[in-house]
């Protein structure tokens, strides 16, 4: 039976950096407070690029690292909550065009917030293992600076811009072992971008009330995230008869260092197992996990066959976990 394997990983971040000291000049906050509460020191901001630009650059590199030509990609799926356009065209369609894939390729977006990359893995796995597609490019891309209110110190300190991409291909080794995804829409108001949709259409009042920006009830989200992320990992490990000791690297969504530390301790992961990038990127939503995965890959930690556990929680609420063996070449062999 054909299996699906993640055969390459790549990321892209824009050049401009917004530090905590920069934010001190914009809102009532401090570097010390931000680092203590979130672990974030800086985040990258796209000033001249849009979401499809970020995704295209990460996607192009992922295709190259997979040893493929762009023409060999059968489908592009992009996870984003900050698309180029509200309705259409999809960011994935624009990425396809940027990559020169203008005819005959399946391309669409999904919206699963910070869990987006886990959802992408599940979709790509199903497409490849069913035989419908052979090589699927999945991309988490976000320009969150476009939906952040830089007068709201509770949210503007958290988010950054960037993109991460991977190629999922048919293979009989180093496969994606398991993916679990879930949702609970009853508490969606706790983390929401209210405006510009059919609930609050674009008009002067909506803009005046700043409903086009991210709104978050931080304390409530924190508590739910820790409980849900922990439960999700326990379930997927038990389902696959594994323990934390069987995992080479735990790559959680990079939202807040306190959430990550709480989950890590409850699940008995060591510092060496846990991949952390929140300090230099902040929360990049759907791009968070592939960006962290790429950092660990480029510094030589993740190698062919490394067993990875991914875990995310995001607005919706959505959450999910995945266990996979890395199927790409070692970075020093590219």
Automatic annotation (TrEMBL):
<dbReference type="Pfam" id="PF08545">
    <property type="entry name" value="ACP_syn_III"/>
</dbReference>
<keyword id="KW-0444">Lipid biosynthesis</keyword>
<feature type="domain" description="Beta-ketoacyl-[acyl-carrier-protein] synthase III N-terminal">
    <location>
        <begin position="108"/>
        <end position="185"/>
    </location>
</feature>
<keyword id="KW-0511">Multifunctional enzyme</keyword>
<comment type="subunit">
    <text>Homodimer.</text>
</comment>
<keyword id="KW-0808">Transferase</keyword>
<keyword id="KW-0276">Fatty acid metabolism</keyword>
<keyword id="KW-0443">Lipid metabolism</keyword>
<feature type="active site">
    <location>
        <position position="114"/>
    </location>
</feature>
<dbReference type="InterPro" id="IPR013751">
    <property type="entry name" value="ACP_syn_III_N"/>
</dbReference>
<keyword id="KW-0012">Acyltransferase</keyword>
<dbReference type="InterPro" id="IPR016039">
    <property type="entry name" value="Thiolase-like"/>
</dbReference>
<comment type="function">
    <text>Catalyzes the condensation reaction of fatty acid synthesis by the addition to an acyl acceptor of two carbons from malonyl-ACP. Catalyzes the first condensation reaction which initiates fatty acid synthesis and may therefore play a role in governing the total rate of fatty acid production. Possesses both acetoacetyl-ACP synthase and acetyl transacylase activities. Its substrate specificity determines the biosynthesis of branched-chain and/or straight-chain of fatty acids.</text>
</comment>
<keyword id="KW-0963">Cytoplasm</keyword>
<feature type="active site">
    <location>
        <position position="283"/>
    </location>
</feature>
<feature type="region of interest" description="ACP-binding">
    <location>
        <begin position="254"/>
        <end position="258"/>
    </location>
</feature>
<dbReference type="InterPro" id="IPR013747">
    <property type="entry name" value="ACP_syn_III_C"/>
</dbReference>
<feature type="active site">
    <location>
        <position position="253"/>
    </location>
</feature>
<comment type="pathway">
    <text>Lipid metabolism; fatty acid biosynthesis.</text>
</comment>
<protein>
    <recommendedName>
        <fullName>Beta-ketoacyl-[acyl-carrier-protein] synthase III</fullName>
        <ecNumber>2.3.1.180</ecNumber>
    </recommendedName>
</protein>
<dbReference type="InterPro" id="IPR004655">
    <property type="entry name" value="FabH"/>
</dbReference>
<dbReference type="GO" id="GO:0033818">
    <property type="term" value="F:beta-ketoacyl-acyl-carrier-protein synthase III activity"/>
</dbReference>
<comment type="similarity">
    <text>Belongs to the thiolase-like superfamily. FabH family.</text>
</comment>
<keyword id="KW-0275">Fatty acid biosynthesis</keyword>
<feature type="domain" description="Beta-ketoacyl-[acyl-carrier-protein] synthase III C-terminal">
    <location>
        <begin position="237"/>
        <end position="325"/>
    </location>
</feature>
<dbReference type="Pfam" id="PF08541">
    <property type="entry name" value="ACP_syn_III_C"/>
</dbReference>
